[in-house]
Amino acid sequence: MTPSDKNLSQCCSSKCISPDMNWKELTKAGNIYTPGNASTYETGDWRTIRPVWDEERCIHCLICWRYCPDASIISTGGKFDSFDYKHCKGCGICANVCPAHAIEMISEDEIEKQKEAQKDEE
Question: Which of 31, 42, 91, 95 could disulfide-pair with 86, CB 3.0 to 4.6 Å?
Answer without folding.
Answer: 42
